[in-house]
Design a protein that fits this description.
Layout lengths: L2 H42 L4 H7 L7 H7 L19 E4 L3 E4 L2 E3 L2 E3 L18 E8 L1 H4 L10 H12 L1 H4 L2 E8 L5 H10 L8 E6 L1 H8 L10 H16 L18 H21 L3 E6 L12 H8 L4 H17 L6 E5 L22 H14 L6
Parallel strand pairs: 5-6, 5-7, 7-8, 8-9
Antiparallel strand pairs: 1-2, 3-4
Helix pairs in contact: 1-9, 5-13, 7-10, 10-12
Length: 383
């Protein structure tokens, strides 16, 4: 074999080897990118109401009832894709994650991660009464027709329409809520963020998620929300790619579900600390036990009853746990604290009216009832 032929064969072999290595390298990158993209796409599916309903595989028979909540008819399902459900998240100190600033669907998130049009809070304008509403997805307004139809939006409008002419105050109501938050997240946010933003009143519209996480084998004092689980899963993929062990499990599970006494005790501890932090900031703290489909007081529609019975034991669990929370949170003795039981707030809603989207969410009509209850139950003069 000639020297020239040997060199040609060697060059061909090197080229084949290089091509194989390149294909393996770029194929590996593409595979890793595909895994990341799939995980991110799965998370983004729930950003709108329609995506959220599909994510949980809502039975098709329930769609007409949900459409009726919005005055829509079968065939108009795409309108639900314009309604914010779970906002895109971003990591945040101490609370794990907050809503990512920007516009998504029909929700505006400001630079603080609050669902609010204002971009600054300090210094607070003179003759301004400022309320912060904390909680999970119900307080956030998941399923509302717009920012003006969430609880805080309607509360602010009611206060300025009904009370401003007499008091001369400008009323602000700011939503500081993230889907899946427990009273622990609310307490930390009150202590570390809201207390520095000149609050006059803080309302914790809460309770449902504390019970729910307990049913998911989680201790609300030490657990990961869905956002946290997503970020850890992504980080574990990175570690796997570079040959390192996982950073840890995506969930921290307890041996047993939390019983109602434990749920109430954990919530009470958070609220006691939240009341102290609010008091140090010169603000009143109100804990409002939120309405849900298991304790609402309303006679359910046929569809709402199906939702109630998908977990047959849950109506009894929420009834018992909310009873424990009423006792535990209603007995807190702090000069700046008030407890409101809104869990049966919808008792006067007509039986035929579709109200609940699922077990804990309702649209603007339900939010208006909650906002009106807060206006009527509380004194709004400046302290």
């Amino acid at each position: 074999m000639s020297r020239r032929l040997e060199w040609a064969l060697a060059a061909i072999l090197c080229a084949v080897l290089a091509l194989t290595l390149a294909l393996g390298f770029f194929g590996g990158l593409k595979t890793a990118a595909y895994r990341f993209q799939r995980m991110i796409d799965e998370e983004r599916r729930t950003e709108t109401l329609l995506g959220g309903l599909r994510h949980v595989r809502m039975p098709e028979e329930d769609m007409p009832g949900i459409l009726a909540i919005y005055g829509l008819k079968p065939g108009q399902e795409r309108e639900l894709d314009k309604i914010a459900w779970v906002p895109p998240g971003m990591p945040a100190p101490f609370v794990g994650a907050i809503a990512r600033p920007g516009r998504f669907a029909n929700a505006e998130i400001n630079s603080f991660g609050f669902r609010d049009r204002r971009q600054r809070y300090m210094p607070k304008p003179a003759r301004t009464y400022r309320l912060f509403l904390t909680g999970g997805s119900t307080a956030f307004g998941s399923g509302a027709e717009g920012d003006d139809r969430i609880i805080a939006g309607q509360l602010e409008a009611m206060l300025n329409r009904d009370l401003k002419p007499k008091s001369g105050l400008d009323y602000e109501a700011v939503t500081v809520a993230v889907p899946a938050w427990s009273t622990t997240h609310e307490r930390i946010m009150i202590e570390n963020r809201i207390a520095d933003l000149a609050p006059d009143r803080i309302v914790m519209l809460s309770g449902f998620n504390d019970v729910l996480w307990g049913q998911y084998f989680s201790d609300v004092s030490w657990f990961f929300t869905f956002y946290d689980q997503h970020y850890i899963a992504l980080l574990n993929q990175v570690h796997q790619r570079v040959g390192l062990p996982p950073v840890g499990p995506t969930r921290i599970l307890t041996e047993h579900k939390a019983d109602c006494a434990t749920v109430a005790a954990r919530a009470r501890r958070n609220v006691v600390h939240a009341a102290f932090a609010a008091g140090q900031a010169g603000a009143e703290l109100v804990f409002a036990l939120q309405p849900n489909i298991f304790t609402m007081g309303k006679t359910p529609t046929v569809r709402e009853e199906r939702v109630r019975q998908r977990n047959p034991e849950w109506p009894q669990i929420w009834s018992e746990c909310f009873g424990r929370m009423r006792a535990a949170l209603g007995s807190i003795d702090a000069p700046n604290y008030r407890f409101l039981d809104l869990s049966r707030l919808f008792a006067d809603v007509p039986a035929a009216q579709e109200l609940f989207i699922d077990s804990s969410h309702f649209a603007g009509a339900g939010n208006a009832i909650v906002a009106r209850a807060l206006v009527d139950a509380l004194v709004w003069e400046r302290r």
